[in-house]
Amino acid sequence: MRKAALRRAWAPLIGLFWGALMVGSAQAVLPAATGEGDALPSLAPMLERVSPAVVNIATHTRVRSQPNPLMDDPFFRRFFNVPEQRGPMPERRATSAGSGVIVDAAQGYVLTNAHVVRNADEIEVTLVDGRTVKAEMVGMDSQVDLAVLRVKTDGLAQIEIADSTTLRVGDFVIAIGNPFGLGQTVTSGIVSALGRTGLRLDGYENFIQTDASINPGNSGGALVNLRGELVGINTAIIAPAGGNVGIGFAIPTEMATNVMGQLIEHGEVRRGVLGVSIQDLGPELAEAFDVKETRGVVITQVLEDSAAAEAGLQPGDIVTAVDGRPVARAADLRNRVGLSPVGEQIRLDILRDGRAMSVLAIIRETGGSSADGEAVSRYLKGARVRDLRDGEIDYASSGVLVEEVERNSAAWRAGLRSGDVIINANRRDIVNLDELRQAVPDKDAALLLRVNRAGGVFFVVIR
User: Fold this and answer.
1) Which CATH architecture has domain 276-362?
2) Of 141, 145, 387, 390, which one is the catalytic site residue?
3) Residue 60 bears catalytic tag
4) Domain spanning 164-266, CATH class
5) Which end of the chain is more exposed for a tag (fewer CB within 10 A), N or C?
6) CATH assignment of 370-462?
7) Which of 99, 164, 213, 219 is catalytic?
């Protein structure tokens, strides 16, 4: 009886043991080919061809240590007998990692994200074969978050570039990059959505959304299709818990190649403007304008002596397409115009008083100087400012645009951010950079700025 009871007790455990053993044996003898002798499906051959064109990027930056605010307190120093800190604060070397894609092996051009290499004093590129070479900056565009580097070495492999406009939701894609500095890593997924916007307050956005695992360090890496062709540059993730949650974004090659060409040719992106203020159409406006269309862009203002005025555009016109491609929202039109080279002619399909028509407009470049904020005031150190161009944004028509702000700089700590528009300085309205300089006669004096941020206006005291 006792033996029978023991057998009954051990029977389930023995069954689990033999089941695990059989599963392990089955996995150990999985065939490398089908019953007909054909190889099993694998992405390995494509990745072996493409991976050498994806590189790891390491940047080195000298960062000045921040002083302890207690050291500025005379009572604290006297009480604890701490000498006053004199001279500049010591510097430390900060290192960060990212990814890049070789797009031209002959010239050594590497495409990556601007935020990967921004403020870098040294940039090193590590190839898949283990070689590490210095890279030089060719050009950078913060508004699209792209940069072009150049390396001078032999034996480079380049990636083929596909037309991202042919992508469809559900297409398989592969992300290749350097997550967390681990080294080249491959993940797979599908295209989850196209034309995503709203990730930043400024800049040009038209992201590919994918569930291929993208993590910190993947930025600047390749998003490729199953043919191994580049369809996007991995650039951002939504990570509430700090890790991948299956929502990543890539800049499509349609946008990347446009920016890359200008960076290589000019070292910068020379953007043009149409000279209009715009807003989304929407069902309510469509009903008010008595049109059947509910997706499009309404022109609310046409600036004098602009490309739009010359083309004959009028307030109330509804733009439905640019060069034959549908325009569903204001971001679509802004992207199309902002990424068009100066002098390019575009065709706009519009509805005017319910009638469909087309107009031709030639993109114009507007004047405007640019300067480091420190040249205006020591409290604006770390900011790049320039004249706001006509029709460039829809929430301000004049002022000084804060083009970019270095993280942890004096301007950053004061609260300024990229995309802010300074419209008043020291109680004096300003419309351009020259007037800002006139409003700040003393570079060492405190500043009172009135700032427009995405339509919200507030004061900033910087001292």
Assistant:
1) Roll (2.30)
2) 145
3) no
4) mainly beta
5) N
6) 2.30.42.10
7) 219
Residue 448, strand partner residues: 461
Tens-binned pLDDT, residue by residue, of the chain (463 aa) = 444 554 554 444 444 444 433 334 333 344 555 556 667 788 889 999 999 999 999 988 765 555 555 556 666 566 666 666 655 555 666 677 889 999 999 999 999 998 888 778 889 999 988 899 999 999 888 878 899 999 999 999 999 999 998 999 999 999 999 888 788 889 999 999 998 877 764 567 889 999 998 888 888 899 999 999 999 999 877 666 556 678 889 999 989 998 899 889 888 777 777 888 888 888 888 888 888 888 888 998 887 778 888 889 999 899 999 988 888 888 888 888 877 777 888 899 999 988 899 999 988 765 444 567 877 888 888 788 888 876 667 677 788 888 878 777 778 888 888 788 999 999 889 888 888 888 888 877 888 899 988 788 888 888 7
219 is catalytic: yes
List 51, 115, 387, 390, catalytic entry: 115
Residue 72 zone, left/alpha/beta (φ > 0; ψ -120 to 50; rest): alpha
Q: Whole-angstrom Cα distance, residue 44 to residue 48? A: 6
| Cα–chain center distance at 83 | 45
Structure tokens at 312: 């004959």
Same fold, 47-81+91-151 and 276-362: no
Whether residue 266 lies in the annotated active site: no
Using a 10 angstrom Cβ sphere, with 0-12 exposed, 13-18 middle and 19 or more buried, the burial of residue 299 is: buried
Closest CA to 297 of 274, 314, 284, 316: 316
CATH no., domain 47-81+91-151: 2.40.10.120
Domain range summary for the chain, segments of one domain joined by +: 47-81+91-151, 164-266, 276-362, 370-462
| Strand pairing category for 355-362 and 370-372 | unpaired
Residues paired with residue 261 on neighbouring β-strands, in sequence order: none
